[in-house]
Write a structure and sequence with these properties.
alpha/beta, Nucleotidyltransferase, domain 5, 6-stranded mixed β-sheet, globular
Length: 169
C-alpha cells in the first residue's frame, strides 16, 4: 500500500472474559498529524468482541470513501478474521466449517466497513511501548473504568499526534 491516508490504532479488552468490555481507537492523518480518539464499551462482552468493535468503529469513523487505511492492532484474531478467514465465512453463509460463527453480526458490519476502504493490517505487540497501541489500550481501559463506576463509557477527543507513525508494509 502506498502512504496511507489514515493510520488507525485499535484495541479492545475485557475485565473478565466475558466481563466489562472496552474498546478504543485513534485515527491519525499522517500529513497533518491531526488525530481523533474514541472509546466505548459494554457491561458484558468478550475480548474478541471488543477487539472487533474497535476496528469496526475506527473504519466507520473515516468519512472519505476509498481511503487508504493502515490499521495497527495487537489482535492477531482481528487481522486473521479480516485478511484470512472472512472470505471463507462469507462463502459458507457466515458459518465456520465446523458450525456457528461467533460475533457474526459484528463481522458482517466489519466486512461492510472494509469494503468502503483500502485497508492494510499491521500487527503490533501489545504492552510493548508502541505509543499508538498504548494509547488505544488506555482508551479501552478508560471506557471499562467508566462502566465499572456506573458512568457513560463514550469518549471522544480531537488532538495532535506527536509520536512517530509506523511505515506501512
Amino acid at each position: 500500500m502506498p502512504q496511507p491516508d489514515v493510520v488507525a490504532f485499535t484495541d479492545g479488552g475485557c475485565r473478565g472474559n466475558p466481563g466489562i468490555g472496552g474498546w478504543g481507537f485513534i485515527l491519525i492523518h499522517p500529513g497533518t498529524k491531526s488525530a481523533l480518539e474514541r472509546a466505548g464499551g459494554l457491561p458484558e462482552a468478550t475480548n474478541n468482541k471488543m477487539e472487533l468493535t474497535a476496528a469496526l468503529r475506527a473504519l466507520e469513523a473515516i468519512r472519505k470513501p476509498s481511503s487508504r487505511v493502515l490499521v495497527c492492532t495487537d489482535s492477531r484474531y482481528v487481522i486473521d478474521c479480516c485478511s484470512k478467514w472472512m472470505l471463507g465465512w462469507k462463502a459458507r453463509g457466515w458459518t465456520r466449517k465446523d458450525g456457528a460463527l461467533k460475533n457474526v453480526e459484528l463481522l458482517k458490519e466489519l466486512d461492510g466497513a472494509l469494503a468502503r476502504h483500502e485497508v492494510a493490517w499491521q500487527w503490533v505487540a501489545g504492552h510493548s511501548g508502541d505509543p499508538g497501541n498504548e494509547r488505544a489500550d488506555a482508551l479501552a481501559n478508560l471506557a471499562m473504568d467508566a462502566i465499572a463506576a456506573g458512568r457513560e463509557a463514550s469518549y471522544e477527543r480531537r488532538t495532535e499526534w506527536t509520536a512517530s507513525l509506523p511505515v506501512s508494509t
